[in-house]
């Protein structure tokens, strides 16, 4: 039979259990009394300096005047670069290009958008900044209309208006030798 003492002891034990259970979460522990340790995230490592990519002209003229290409390839590459200039700069009418030096300046970033197409030192330029052919002779650039040029190489004899000249017309056809258009 259950005695009063047993019931009292059981009630006291239950009361103590409830007391400790409830106070266990509310009493601050030693760890909770200390300020929290804040771990800051590590700063990202410094970004490596990204090397400059090649300019569009360097990509288009990467084989300019090489042993693996012909003079026709060279003139077509100059024509493609000129077309890229017209396409990207758009308002080229405000910056007319009438000769070799004008077109070379435009490729160097002297254009309305200051967009560079070629670096200052490139095999297509001589020391005076003119565009040259594979025999180091300045190309003859003749404007036909806004954004359209005839591009002529003097050829291996390095003299313009002789039989070995090669000229690229705006329509993409070539004329060999000296002809009056």
Blueprint of the fold:
Elements: H1 4-26, H2 30-33, H3 56-60, H4 71-89, H5 100-107, E1 140-145, E2 148-153, E3 166-168, E4 174-176
Antiparallel strand pairs: 1-2, 2-3, 3-4
Could you explain the architecture of this structure?
- With 181 residues, this protein is α+β, with helices and mostly antiparallel strands.
- The chain has helices spanning 4-26, 30-33, 56-60, 71-89, 100-107; strands at residues 140-145, 148-153, 166-168, 174-176.
- The protein has a four-stranded antiparallel sheet, with helices on one face.
- It is rod-shaped.
Rounded to the nearest angstrom, the radius of gyration is 40 Å
Distance between the termini: 131 Å
The 3D shape can be described as rod-shaped
- DSSP strand count: 4
Beta-strand content bin: 5-15%
Give the helix proportion (percent range): 25-40%
The biggest sheet amounts to: 4 strands, antiparallel
* Structural class assignment: alpha+beta
Question: How many helices in DSSP terms?
Answer: 5
Q: Trace the largest sheet across and list its strands.
A: 1-2-3-4
H/E element sequence: HHHHHEEEE
In round numbers, the mean pLDDT is: 84
Low-confidence stretches: none
Key terms:
181 residues; alpha+beta; four-stranded antiparallel beta sheet
